[in-house]
From TrEMBL:
<protein>
    <submittedName>
        <fullName>Transcriptional regulator, XRE family</fullName>
    </submittedName>
</protein>
<dbReference type="InterPro" id="IPR010982">
    <property type="entry name" value="Lambda_DNA-bd_dom_sf"/>
</dbReference>
<dbReference type="InterPro" id="IPR001387">
    <property type="entry name" value="Cro/C1-type_HTH"/>
</dbReference>
<feature type="compositionally biased region" description="Basic and acidic residues">
    <location>
        <begin position="91"/>
        <end position="102"/>
    </location>
</feature>
<dbReference type="InterPro" id="IPR004451">
    <property type="entry name" value="MJ0586"/>
</dbReference>
<feature type="compositionally biased region" description="Polar residues">
    <location>
        <begin position="103"/>
        <end position="113"/>
    </location>
</feature>
<dbReference type="Pfam" id="PF01381">
    <property type="entry name" value="HTH_3"/>
</dbReference>
<feature type="domain" description="HTH cro/C1-type">
    <location>
        <begin position="95"/>
        <end position="149"/>
    </location>
</feature>
<dbReference type="InterPro" id="IPR058562">
    <property type="entry name" value="MJ0586_N"/>
</dbReference>
<feature type="region of interest" description="Disordered">
    <location>
        <begin position="35"/>
        <end position="113"/>
    </location>
</feature>
<feature type="compositionally biased region" description="Low complexity">
    <location>
        <begin position="158"/>
        <end position="169"/>
    </location>
</feature>
<feature type="region of interest" description="Disordered">
    <location>
        <begin position="147"/>
        <end position="175"/>
    </location>
</feature>
<dbReference type="Pfam" id="PF26602">
    <property type="entry name" value="HVO_2718_N"/>
</dbReference>
<dbReference type="GO" id="GO:0003677">
    <property type="term" value="F:DNA binding"/>
</dbReference>
<feature type="compositionally biased region" description="Low complexity">
    <location>
        <begin position="41"/>
        <end position="73"/>
    </location>
</feature>
Amino acid sequence: MPQCEMCGKERPSLKTVKVEGAELELCDDCAEFGTEVRTESSSSSASTKYSTSSSSSTSSGSSGGTASSSGGSNRRRRDMFDDMDEIAADYDDRIREAREGRGQSQEELASSLNEKASLIRKLERGDILPPDSVRKKLEQKLGISLVEGSDDDEEEWSGGSSTTTTLGDVVKRKD
C-alpha cells in the first residue's frame, strides 16, 4: 500500500500534488497544502495541467483544442525567482575588503548602517546571506555591488561573437 510522502500514512490511493514547486504523492488530507496535478492522456499534449477553478471551466473538447495549440510555444513560465537579484558568491570578501579599505571596524560599519555588529560579522564569515534592505545599505555605504552582473551572463551565453572558434574551423574533411 503506497504511503503519503508528507505525513507517511498508508492509503489505497494517492494524488499527485504540487507543493512549493515539488510534485508529491499525497493523501486526501495533505492534498489541501498544494495544487493537484493531473496528466492528460491525449497524445497531443504530454505536459501536466494544474487543476484550478479557471482551468476546470475550460475542460470542454473545443476549448481543449485551442489550449493545446496556444500552449505550443517553448517559452518558460516566469516565476518569482526571475526578478530576484543573485547575490555574488564572494559577497563576504567584497564586504570585508571594502570595510577594511575604508579603515572601519565591524562595529563602526554596523553603527553607520544602524545594524548590529553581529550581523556584519556573520555576513563577513559567509554564515548568512544579506537581506535586501541590508544589501542595499552596504552597497550604498561601501560603494560596492553584492549582486552578480546579469549582463555578463547574457553575453557569455549569447554566442554571437565573431571570434568564437567552432568545430568547423578546426576539422579537415577527408574526401
